[in-house]
Structure formats: structure tokens, C-alpha cells
Amino acid sequence: MNIFLAGIIQGSLVEATIHQQDWRDAIGDVLKRHLPDANVYCHFSKHPQSITYDFPEIQKTFDEGLHEARTCDVLIAWLPSASMGTAIEMYEAFRTGVAVLTISPMTANWVVKLYSHKIFSDLEAFEAYLASGELEPFVRNIRDTAGETENRGNE
Questions:
Q1: Using one digit for the tens of pLDDT, what is the confidence trace for 115-127?
Q2: Which residue has the higher pLDDT, 45 or 131?
Q3: 57 with 83: CB under 8 angstroms?
Q4: Is the bond preceding residue 36 a cis peptide, omega within 30 degrees?
Q5: What is the pLDDT of residues 72-112, one digit of tens each?
Q6: In terms of DSSP H, where are the helices of the chain?
Q7: 10 Å Cβ neighbour count for 114?
Q8: Could you give the CA distance from residue 72 to residue 128 in angstroms, rounded to a whole number?
Q9: CA–CA separation, 81 vs 85, rounded Å?
Q10: Are residues 97 and 114 in contact, defined by beta-carbon separation less than 8 angstroms?
Q11: Is the pLDDT of residue 149 over 90?
């Protein structure tokens, strides 16, 4: 199973700085415990200095990330607050039949509602879902029924 980690990097910060990225390790640890054979792609790990990039490197890097989001099996979105880049990754993944699992308190946010197949309130709820063993059949179902809205739910 190919998994793409998406989530807030710069968010709404005005300066060329980024939010803490320790959430990537926390989600990675959960994935190792429950899906040890998964191939986890972290675009930020591949481009840790991307905040310093200029055009055309910004465009190339962003497009590369969108390609990965569209071609994975599962996109996990970490959204403690809004992220325009993550919103685009979620949209691209969702519209191509990728299962989008979002960890966020922003359950009223339209992008979160529209482009998440499942929404988890926190990392613990996400881990409980992985422990249940329901992910793999859910991903197969999403691929088989891409575009249908019945496959959504909050955890």
C-alpha cells in the first residue's frame, strides 16, 4: 500500500517559516505499528528546505507532490489548521479515487468535509481505525466506487 503524508507546512504564516513537522514522525510511528509493509511517501522529507525555493523549483516540487498524491492508495492529511497546499493535494487525490483520511478538528471546514473519505478528530482515533483492520477493504472500496459520496464518515 502506497501512502502519501499531506499536511500543514507553512499554513497561514506570513514569514518564510514553517509549522512544527513532528506530526510526520508521530503518524509514521502509527503506520509502522499497523501497516509495517506500507510504502510511506513524505514530500516534506524529500524537500525539507522547500520554503527557500524559487521559481521554477517551486512549481516543479509542487507538481511532483500532486503527482504523488494522485497516484498513491491513501492520502493522510494532517490539518490542525488550514493549509492551501494540503487542500489541493486532498482534492487531487479524492478526484482520482485515492482514499483520503483526514486528521483534523476542522470538521466544519468545507474542504475537509468534501474531500475526506474519513475524518478523525485526533491521532488516537486514527490509530484505532488502523488497528481495526478496516483500512485495506475500505481502500479497495474507494477505488471501486471513486467519486461516490456514501463512502465518507467521521471517526
A1: 999 999 999 999 9
A2: 131
A3: no
A4: no
A5: 999 999 999 999 999 999 999 999 999 999 999 999 999 99
A6: 23-34, 43-46, 57-71, 84-95, 110-114, 123-132, 135-144
A7: 14
A8: 22
A9: 12
A10: no
A11: no
Residue 103 to residues 7, 41, 78, 82, 119: CA-CA distances in angstroms? 9, 17, 5, 12, 6
pLDDT of residue 39: 98
Among 23, 8, 13, residue whose Cα is nearest residue 85: 8
- Cα–Cα distances (Å) from 53 to 40, 56, 60, in that order, read 24, 8, 10
C-alpha cell at 149: 459520496
Domains, the chain, ranges and CATH?
2-11+18-143 (3.40.50.450)
DSSP β-ladder status, 2-7 and 74-78: parallel
Q: What is the DSSP letter of 9?
A: S
